[in-house]
Design a protein that fits this description.
heterodimer, A: about 650 residues, alpha+beta, Substrate Binding Domain Of DNAk, Chain A, domain 1, 4 domains, six-stranded mixed sheet, five-stranded mixed sheet, about 25% strand, B: about 240 residues, mainly alpha, Helix Hairpins, 2 domains
Chain lengths: ~650, ~240
């Protein structure tokens, strides 16, 4: 194929994945460590002594850096994408990151990371670049085009920020696809079915519900709804807050003052949550700094009572989506579950009840891994766009805009011009005029949302129609066309009809980067030099090898090192020596294998190190046990804790 | 009237230069996508303006055209073709959204023929706003609406003080049923006017248009009432 692969990317709150169409089947591309999931974590390595930019690491290695240099690590940045200063400030209450000090109102907020500062799209761009590299290493060829998924309920600014991130990472983003719709595509591949399906997507940080009609390969979304602030994180925070309160009340220790301890406790909470999906009970057993133990058994029944209010918040959007689609629960033929949080039995019970599944002898679809299904669907959409696969030949996705588009009128009310759940692309034409003689400018305020007052909706953009020929008030007739494209992003054009002049518009997005800003943030032009591709792969592989070798060199100084058996220590030394040799060859494959081997050899050490790092505050037995029992815990949701709790 | 149908000026295909009818989305000769034309929603589907529409056929045609026009089919095409595909698909989607809904379709057709409607309950993306409509009570409903508003107010008071009044609730439920029935009656009347408009000549169409404008106003008024009752009965 002359034009190269189009990959599908799930840019998640907790984890990100990249997939592609292998013939007629979507397949996830593993990272160099063999894992399909790349934690959406970005770390800034220490400043190099000779000046210059410090290296940036992404994924599991970045997660490890959290222990040594937490002030240089950022995660869950998806929650900050496309948000304004005040929103980010509110969001950061739950995270240990800091905003850069000197941000002016109206600017895109930047996060302080060590001595540097980054906008949320830049952070996402590093995650995307890692996925791009993983795919390039896998194909042995450059990858320049991608489909990226976003929560269906993402607004215009959040979508634009995601697209900006793609551009910064050197990716031509051919399409943004809504996550639940992508999941439906992944499921719809192997069956030429007709019917109405509901996709219930409860992830780490967002909730989406979409109702689709399937017919002859056409996936027509009827309605979508959701909450961009609802997910597994909320459950973790609940368990954590309870544990912190109980420890404080029963043992007089306020762990909130110890960020490391809070992190360990949060990981214990996540472990307990995960265990409760399979077992009837889970335990907290933690040694406190004063020597006391905090022991707590959580029966599943109690857990379900606790999380009931969180889960209940998904019911409203489901009912609204059904009503908007004009169907009753009994008319839903199939339900697809997406997102790690749908592994919780109580979630499945709720879905069963909402859609009357078992009453009708039905079961929700869970055949595809809920962590991977969105990426697989993104690959299917990539296949549709590339037109390169027989399986996707007849498929077409018709999606909708999740939020109504409106214009602020006199008095602050909203005139809706494109209703929510309109199939996109969608357009509307409005006419404006002047209120004063000789007026040459008209200001327009566009908002997104369902509320009556503009102040209660989300401000999308303000623009000025300029260069209107001076005329008597009310005489100019300016036609403004609003168009929502297939990515759900708004475009505006204007024309003065009496003079036939195209009015100049300066669209000022309320939350967003200018084109020039995005241009200046493109990660490195090196990524575009295709002729140097082989050279680039080698350099990247060597950089990665250096990073892991440097970490291993410091390992014996860590107290956790002594907890390893002699055998384990020898194993690490052998893998290290092998990688050192491989690094000196020009063989990318050999270096990659060396990295995988050393990564595997040090996995238990990494887990021990996590425990050791927090043992000064608490000794987390639960964690070390979990580390032994669950080998793949390395890919489990990352264990980072909010900086403070309400 | 219906001047939109008369301006089919032949233009040349940008790709193969063969002349074609302006309202064609694809060149009949080389099948390439064409710049969007200024046709109305009916002509986007190759239909004459009619109020009775075969919805199943409309959906099939929507899917068939979507398959050919959608931007997904032009991900790797020239920038021009991408732009046209986007504009054509937006028009197609706007048209389908309007035509598949009986009320929006009626409003749209009335606007197309120049009959004034008092704003739209269902916005058709044509510049009409959804700002609160003036609520002038139809003369024959004055008494019932007065009673209903009293009951709604009473119910609101009862709710405020935490009481439920089963008798009042029942009476509101009956009012709800009654007004829903009236909406149904309006819909039947509308359909009767559709038939007159669709089959009639100019002299039959004008009165049908006036009747439909009045029926749409009445329907808007009634659905607002039903919505208010639903609101007070719900939660």
């Amino acid at each position: 194929m002359a034009e190269g692969h189009v990959v599908g990317i799930d840019l998640g709150t907790t984890n990100s994945l990249v997939a592609y169409m292998e013939g007629d089947n979507p397949v996830v591309i593993p990272g160099v460590d063999g894992s399909n999931l790349v934690p959406s974590v970005v770390a800034l390595d220490p400043m190099p002594a000779n000046g210059g930019r410090p290296t940036i690491t992404v994924g599991n290695s970045a997660r490890r850096a959290l222990i040594e240099t937490p002030e240089r690590v950022i995660y869950s940045v998806k929650r900050l994408m496309g948000r304004g200063l005040d929103e980010v400030r509110a969001e950061l209450k739950y995270f240990p990151f800091r905003l850069a000090g000197d941000i002016e109102a109206g600017e895109v907020p930047r996060i302080q990371l060590g001595e540097m500062r980054f906008t949320p799209p830049e952070i996402s761009a590093y995650v995307l670049r890692q996925l791009k590299r993983n795919a390039e290493r896998f194909f042995g060829a450059p990858v320049a085009q991608a489909v990226i998924t976003v929560p269906a309920y993402f607004n215009d600014a959040q979508r634009q920020a995601t697209k900006d991130a793609g551009r910064m990472a050197g990716l031509d983003v051919l399409r943004l696809v809504n996550e639940p719709t992508a999941a439906a595509l992944a499921y719809g591949l192997d069956r030429a079915k007709e019917g109405t399906i509901a996709v219930y997507d409860l992830g780490g940080g967002t909730f989406d519900i979409s109702i689709l009609k399937l017919r002859d390969g056409i996936f027509e979304v009827q309605s979508t709804n959701g909450d961009t602030h609802l997910g597994g994180d909320d459950i973790d925070n609940l368990l954590l807050a309870i544990a912190l309160d109980e420890i404080h009340a029963e043992h007089g220790v306020d762990l909130r003052a110890h960020p490391g301890a809070v992190q360990a406790l949060r990981k214990a909470a996540i472990d307990a949550k995960v265990r409760l999906s399979a077992e009837q009970t889970a335990q907290f057993d933690i040694e406190l700094p004063n020597g006391d133990r905090y022991q707590r058994e959580i029966p599943r029944a109690v857990f379900e009572l606790l999380i009931e209010p969180v889960l209940a918040r998904t019911a409203g959007p489901c009912r609204q989506a059904l009503a908007d689609a004009g169907v009753t629960p009994a008319e839903i033929d199939e339900v697809v579950l997406v997102g790690g949080s749908t592994r919780i039995p109580a979630v499945r019970d709720l879905v069963d009840e909402l859609f009357q599944l078992s009453a009708r002898g039905k079961k929700p679809h869970t055949e595809l891994n809920p962590d991977e299904v969105v990426a697989l669907g993104a690959a299917v959409q990539a296949g549709i766009l590339a037109g390169a696969s027989k399986a996707t030949d007849d498929m077409l996705l018709l999606d909708v805009t999740p939020l109504s588009l409106g214009i602020e009128q006199l008095g602050g009310t909203v005139a809706r011009i494109i209703q929510r759940n309109s199939t996109i692309p969608a357009s509307a034409t409005e006419h404006f005029t002047t209120g004063v003689d000789g007026q040459t400018n008209v200001a327009i305020h566009v908002v997104q949302g369902e509320r009556e007052l503009a102040a209660d909706c989300r401000s999308l953009a303000r623009f000025d129609l300029k260069g209107i020929p001076p005329m008597a008030a009310g005489l100019p007739r300016i036609e403004v066309r609003f168009l929502i494209d297939a990515d759900g992003i708004l475009h505006v054009t204007a024309r003065e009809q009496r003079s036939g002049k195209a009015a100049e518009i300066e669209v000022k997005p309320t939350y967003g980067l200018t084109d020039a800003q995005v241009e200046s943030m493109i990660l490195d032009s090196f990524d575009h030099a295709e002729e140097d591709f082989a050279k680039r792969l080698l350099i990247e592989a060597r950089n990665e090898a250096d990073a892991i070798l440097a970490a291993v060199a410091k390992a014996p100084q860590n107290p956790a090192w002594n907890q390893l058996s002699a055998e384990e220590q020898t194993g690490i030394a052998a893998a290290r020596d092998w990688l050192r040799m491989a690094r000196e060859t020009a063989n990318v494959t050999a270096i990659s294998h060396g990295i995988v081997a050393l990564d595997k050899a040090t996995r238990r050490f990494a887990e021990l190190m996590m425990d050791a790092a927090v043992s000064s505050a608490i000794r987390g037995r639960t964690m070390s046990e979990a580390g032994e029992n669950v080998n793949e815990s390395i890919t489990a949701p990352h264990a980072m804790a909010p900086a403070e709790f309400k | 009237m219906l001047k939109v149908l008369e301006n089919a000026v032949p233009v040349a295909c940008w790709s193969c230069s063969v002349a074609h009818n302006e309202s064609t989305l694809f060149c009949p000769h080389c099948s390439k996508i064409q710049p969007p034309s200024v046709g109305d929603y009916f002509s986007a589907f190759g239909l004459q303006p009619r109020l009775s529409i075969d919805l199943a056929a409309l959906e099939l045609e929507f899917h068939r055209l979507s398959r050919r026009l959608h931007p997904d089919r032009f991900a790797r095409a020239t920038d021009n073709e991408k732009q046209w595909s986007l504009a054509d698909t937006a028009l197609l989607n706007d048209a389908y959204r309007t035509l598949k809904d009986p009320l929006r379709r009626t409003e749209y057709l009335l606007k197309l023929v120049g009959a004034e409607t008092n704003g739209s309950a269902a916005v058709s993306g044509d510049g009409e706003s959804t700002a609160k409509k003036q609520r002038k009570t139809p003369a024959d409903l004055l008494e019932e609406v007065f009673d209903l508003n009293m009951q709604i107010e009473e119910m609101r008071m009862a709710k405020k003080s935490g009481r439920d009044d089963p008798q009042l609730r029942e009476s509101l439920r009956m009012a709800q049923e009654k007004f829903e029935g009236m909406v149904g009656a309006v819909d039947r009347d509308l359909r009767a006017q559709w038939a007159i408009w669709d089959t009639g000549d100019e002299s039959a169409r004008k009165p049908a248009e006036r009747a439909m404008v009045a029926l749409l106003d009445r329907r808007r008024y009634l659905s607002n009432l039903v919505r208010d009752v639903n609101e007070i009965l719900g939660d």
